Fold each of these.
Amino acid sequence: MSDAVDLARIQFATTTSFHFLFVMLTLGLVTLVAITQTRYTLSGNENRRETLSRMTRFWGHLYVINYALGIATGIVMEFQFGMNWSGLATVVGDVFGAPLAIETLVAFFLESTFLGLWIFGWGRLNKWLHLALIWLTALTAYASAFWIMVANAFMQNPVGYEVIGDGGDATVRLTDFGALLSNPMFGDALLHVVAGALVTGGVFMAGISALHFLRRTTEVEFFQRSLRLGLVTAAIAAPVLIGFGFAQFSTIDELQPGKVSEGGDAAAAAQAELVARYGPGDYITPEWANGLFGQMIEFGFLLTLALFAMVLMLFRGWLFRRRLPLRLLVVMIPIPFVAAISGWLFREVGRQPWLVYGLLRTEDAASHVSVGSMWVSLVVFTALFAALAVADWVLIARVARRGPAPAEAALPPRPVTPEPVAL
């Protein structure tokens, strides 16, 4: 590959990884906020309602910060399809563009609309309508992930298409939209990502709550409820995450031989098979990417064991009185993010040298951009994304350390009946 193509790959890997960090926390937190608001809306106990209302607003505030900054990373990332990978749109745009267009026009815009109404409707809308808005926000967020994974699954295993033309002028046309939804590389991968997001959001909520207990917070009930919700959600989602991760192994071995490789005779046989099928090339996943794959699995099992142990410690309140497990919960906050990025890089790097597996090589999809221009855009975009990530971390850390709003500011304002005026 040319230097320009390598730089384009590095740039897209960097921007995608940054964006994926935002996505994982957004999907996890919006679900937990919706659950909290549901409990608030259904509760008949006034004291409990006050606590749940404050939880909704506090964790919702953190969610909105992450969502707002994540939008910028997503928009810039999609621009790169046109700037650096024009061949992708030229050859497979008719197929690849369909799920991306649905994601942008339906999921993204609807999600932003519902979230805006939820933010400004607090205390102004009927409580059931307001509750419906946060669930609609969550559902459209998952719809966004759904269509992104449909597009990515096509890149992993192209289905539902026909090739029009010959040679360098050949393009791909969509013939079976249903095949995109039944792609073997789609279902398990989507559920794996969703479970990972719930683990990420749950560990984040539990870790922030544990931090406040280590600081000897006076908001004991608030953070007890938050810690329980986050910890139990993460503990339930963790085995689901592992299960759907392992469920993909047989599909990967069948459709992408050589992707999960430990070297030796098996790797040599896979390489020979793929050379015979596609021509000369290096089709075996690099050792460092396989290392990330192993790291993801190790983190997943260790995190699951730790979550189960801490759930057991919730009984009789042991967890809230032991500083060591509380410190571990704080330390665990970045682990789901690291595991998620490791898995994502393995999924994408392991597909090389293909941008669309078996159909479009990465070097053939790259735009004709000079090395100097690629260096400039790489530096600019990396700096921009790093600034957004730092801003996100600083704002979230500031709000998280400050804690929830005072009790009197939590509940939606009640309508005031004017006093009768004597004539």
Amino acid sequence: MLGTSASPDTVAALRTDLGLDRPLLLRYLSWIGGVFTGDLGNSYTYDTPVSALIANRLAVTAPLTLIATLLSIVISLPLGVWAANRPNGPVDTLASLFSQVGIAVPNFWIGLLLILGVALGLGWLTPGGFPGWDAGFWPALEALILPSIALAVPQSAVLTRVTRAAVIEVTNEDFIRTARAKGMSRTRALWRHAVPNALLPVVTMLGLQIPFLISGAVLVENVFTLPGIGTLAYQALSQRDLIVVQNVVLMFTLIVMVVNVIVDALYAVLDPRLRGRT
């Protein structure tokens, strides 16, 4: 943190300031106690409480991740269901091409293409930066649209493939053939019976993608110069501000754990057969 040319006295003073001169167990208990009380320590670089830094940056990353998640759902579910409804048809071919390209191309490259094409080429949206929510809802939302698309495309590509496979598997079940034999139309049987029963693997994959959205935000926020958690983590890592890094990692871990709990709860909502097991 001080560099290789720091004097021993300066290093000793920093060790005392960071509490590294205390026994390991006491340091750990102090840190755990601070986590439960909201005291995450002070950033060495910014000389600011880490909890305040994370809270300010979370006001950017949280809506960015939420919008990206909603976009991936809106894109992938209809496309995957339509592709499964007519396998090997035009929509299925389009969905397969979209999935392959979306999975292969990294999100930061999609962000660069969006900046060059949409922001600079067409002049429709801002190429980067974040004016803050104090500047108004639309200016702040406008700054998040292109980064959200860059984050959503790879995730929606994966979800499209999972949705297609899950719906095709369900449509081959006996209860779907029974519904069709009773006179139910193909489209009605698809949306009434096949899609609800195919949502479990889709929700599972959606929960698994949250960590990838968070990690992808580190690159995308830097591409669009957004002052979010990803940018904070990158800057803290570059400046060797380990106090900020460890607490950002802790926050990411807690987010993933909470998402997994929500996904488990959704299982019981989507599948009544699991309610007695929860």
